[in-house]
# Entry
Amino acid sequence: MIKKINIAIDGPAASGKSAAAALLAKKVDYNYMDTGIMYRSFTEYCLKKQIPFDSEDLVTQALELFEMKWVNGHFLFNGQPVTDEIYSANVTKNVPKIAALPEVRKIIVKRIQDIVKTQGFIVVGRDIASVVLPDAQLKIFLTSSLHARSIRRYKQYIKEGINIKQEQVYEDMLLRDNTDKNRSTGRLIIVEDAKVLDNSDYDLQVTVAKLTSLYHNYFSH
# Structure
């Protein structure tokens, strides 16, 4: 039996990393962890508790009391499973404010590291290989052209009944990219030992097949 490793997958918004990583985890029998769920769930908690986001001390105190557990392959927050509320417009608008707080990131990174000590995790985010799991045995940077990603996100919005122009999606994503690349904490970078996969011309199935090959190639070498 092959000893399990930890796999870090980074990439820009709408690169398909979450969907592809989840399917890869099923194929190779690993735990899939989307770290964004942690930030979103805590943001939802702060909104409900009316904790001011401009007070890092109050937010940090709230986080110390906010329980995050990994149970049977899923997160439980304060003993409750994740709900669709974490993807609401209000949470989406405010989660960058939470994620930008250095002390919050420090605490959540430590909690992730404690969970994945047992190995066998595929962890997805924007600074996983560089900050969260710099010792991950396999690091992958999954990317796509801005054009390809904006089309994917546009189709997603249309499917969800959101009325928006494709040009607006493109501009929003360009702004998001610049923010992710230039923020002071946890910025999006390609680490030196990462395998870069550009899936601009791939659908989800091909992307998963390419990721699976990278996984098997790690062990063959």
Remarks:
- The chain has two domains: 1-30+120-210, 37-118.
- The mean pLDDT is 92.
- Strands lie at 6-10, 31-34, 68-71, 74-77, 80-81, 121-125, 138-143, 195-198.
- DSSP finds nine helices and eight strands in the chain.
